[in-house]
Every structure is written in C-alpha cells, then in structure tokens.
Amino acid sequence: MRKRIAIIGGGIAGLAAAVRLRDVTPPGTEIVVYEQSSALGGKLRTGDLGGLPVERGAESFLNSAPGGGESAAVALARRLDLGDALVHPAARPAALAFGGGLVPIPGGTLVGVPGDLSALDGVALAASDADVDSGRPLLAPGEDVAVGALVRERFGDEVVDRLVDPMLGGVYAGRADRLSLRVTMPQLAHTAETEHTLAGAVRAAQARGRRVPGQPVFAAVEGGMSRLVAAAASASGARVRLGLPVRELTRTPGGRWKLIFGPVPAPRSDEVDAVILAVPASPAARLLGDPEVAELEYASVALAGLALPPGTRLPDLSGFLVPPGEGTLVKAATFFTTKWPHLATARGPVIVRASLGRAGEQERLQLDDASLIAIARRELGALIGAELPEPVESWVQRWGGGLPQYAPGHADRVARARAALPEGLALAGAAFDGVGIPVCVASGERAADEVCKFLEENR
After folding, report:
1. pLDDT, tens digit (0-9, with 9 covering 90-100), for 33-55
2. Which of 82, 123, 163, 419 is the most exposed place for a label (fewest CB within 10 A)?
3. Where do the DSSP E strands lie in 265-316?
4. Are residues 79 and 166 located together in one domain of the fold?
5. Which CATH number fits the domain that encloses residue 20?
C-alpha cells in the first residue's frame, strides 16, 4: 500500500528531509509538507536590494564537513544540480570592533578560542595564564558546560568578552556565558574529553577539522539561497500546504497519525503513516505534549540592508564583528559586494548588511524600519571612521525569536525527547541539532532515514 509521510515545517531541514525521502522511498510514496507561513525556506530568504540578490537570512554555509569532505549543504546543492552555481567569498580579512575602531581578527583561533596565546599578540587583550595541566581531561565524557565558563577559567575574561563573545554572537546572537559548548562547538567539546589544557583541546580540534589548503571555508548559491529552497521543493515532489499551521498531532487506533491543521474556526484533518517535526521548540513541544522541549529560548535579531551609491569607499574587509561591550545595536556587518565579488560591478551599488540586536535586547529592536536604518548607518560610519552616505535603497528584515540559545545540557534534553518518541515520529532542525545550513540539512536527512526504517519494518 502506498505510504504517506507528513513533514511539519518547510525550512531547509524539512525540505532536506523531503528530498531524502523522495530518494529512498518506493515510487508513489506521498510526501506532504505543512508550512504555517506563506513561503518555504524558513531563515533562507533572498531579497532584492539595489537590483542585486541579497540574503535576508543566512548568507552562506560551510564548504566542508568537520571531519573532512564536503558539507551536507554542498552535497545537497549538488544533488539539486546546483553544484555549478556554488560561489565562494573573496579572500578578504574580517575585523573586530575594539574601542570604537576596527582591528584584525587574530588568526589561529577556534571561534575565538586561541590554541596559542601568542596569536593574540597583535590585539590588546589581557589573557590569563591559568591554562595549566591538572592531570585530567577538561571535561568528563558527555559533560557539558557554558563556553564562557570554560574559557574564562582558562584564559580570562577579556578573551571571552572581546573575542569569543562576538564570534559566537555573530552566529547565535547570544552570550558565551549562556551557550552550550557541546552544541555550539562540538569538536572542542569532544577533544576536551581527552586533552588536559584548553589550548591543547583547541589545537586537537583544529587538527581534526583541518581542511585542504586553499579550499574556501564558505560557499553560497549564485542568485541566492532561495534557489536552493525552490530546487529542494521541486526535487522532493512533495505536496506543499502553505499558510496551514498544524495544531494537533495524535496517534490513531490503527497506528497512523492524525493531523489537525488550518484555522481554528474551520479545522481540517489528514492521516499519514509517519511524521517528521521540523519546527521551532514551542510548536514542537505543543504537538508532542512535552514541555521540556519548550525550554529552549530564542533571540530576536534584525538585518538592515543598505545599498550605498556606486563608488562608496569601505575598508578592504569582508566585514566585522562587534563585542557586546561596545554598546552598539550593530553586532556584525558584512560588506556584501566586497565579500561576494560575483555581485560587484563598477556602476552598481555598494551593499552593506548589518545585523542588529542580541539575546535579551528585544526592546532595542522595537523601532520602525527607518529608525533602525538610521542607527545602523550612524554606527557603521562611526566604527569604520567615515560617515556613510545616504543609502539609495534599504530594507529591514526582522527575525523575531529567530535564533536558538542552546543552554548547557541541551543535547541531553533532546536525547531524552527523542528516546520518548513513539515510532514513526522523528525530530529535525535547529531546535534540536544546532544552527547552520549543513547541520539542519543533515538533521533533516537523518530524520528521513529514521522514518524510512520504521516504514520498512512495518510494511
């Protein structure tokens, strides 16, 4: 009998699951994607700015997997016949904002954590020398701590506040003192189970993840991430239902799953043989009836895109990160047309994209778009040391509650939630396995494999 599989959530994790299901299930298997918003893609969304495709969400993905080889995102792009559309950033350095100016980001660190304190010689940081061998590994097997707690103990406060915080904040918009080492820096957590010093653990993690010399760190899709979204939806052959939130999920007496979806006054229902949940923590907890899943907090951020007049001069950088202690609303900036040379033209606009807001700063984002653009322009000019001209075009993209804040112990909570799942139900996405396009793609593909195994064993 033909099987039906529901994927609740149409972000990249859900779409990657749909593609994998299409590849490994028998012909005729029906795949249905339910997405409560009006569009697929989640945090992958490409917009137009000054006539150029500029990301309103994630702008790139890691080119390589942690253990070598291509990342899950690159592999998916190739599966979708987008391998020839992969582009890479220019070889431009990035900077840190220190004391109202910009300094180069020290080399040789792992998300800001140095493997050798001499790497910080060019930066005015007072690093501690407390990273001594105590005769035992830094962490017990499976132990989790906050990134900030471990690094403060070994290298001191300034390394965390002025280096690790902005590096982690650029990805998570959160603070190192509240973010799980095991989720945000899994390679370092692994080597910390055997190494006796933090510097040694960093060097071991770097050695394990050593990439081919000259190989780009990041990749993107020419034309924008929305191409990846559209190609995945098409290749999956899934039936897509937009604007229809799934409100209830129950097991039927016959062992199938019943979904109640749509508006409360006019509910609709469907029955399927297996379900993949690829939604944020709160809706997942509601559908599962597991309040522990909802313990994950989220940070709100906004992106400000500025198209500056052609010829606007910027520092020769890909962008910069801003430590929280600088007090700015801008936490990071990308000089988009410098970083992505395939977009730059002599007569085209100069694109700058600023990320605004951090965890706990939601109230600072409660301004209208024009005010946020004005703040971004003023702060960017102050940091680069030159007033920016008025943009010829701009936009603001708000991601309310968009970035998960993984507290220590998150991985254990997810493991318990997965262990309690009934057969035929799998979890995928950033709420469970981490942020980043490759992580979400791999998460969706694993969930697809899990439900496939269930369906094969229950034919």
Report:
1. 999 999 999 999 999 999 999 99
2. 419
3. 268-272, 274-277, 297-308
4. no
5. 3.50.50.60
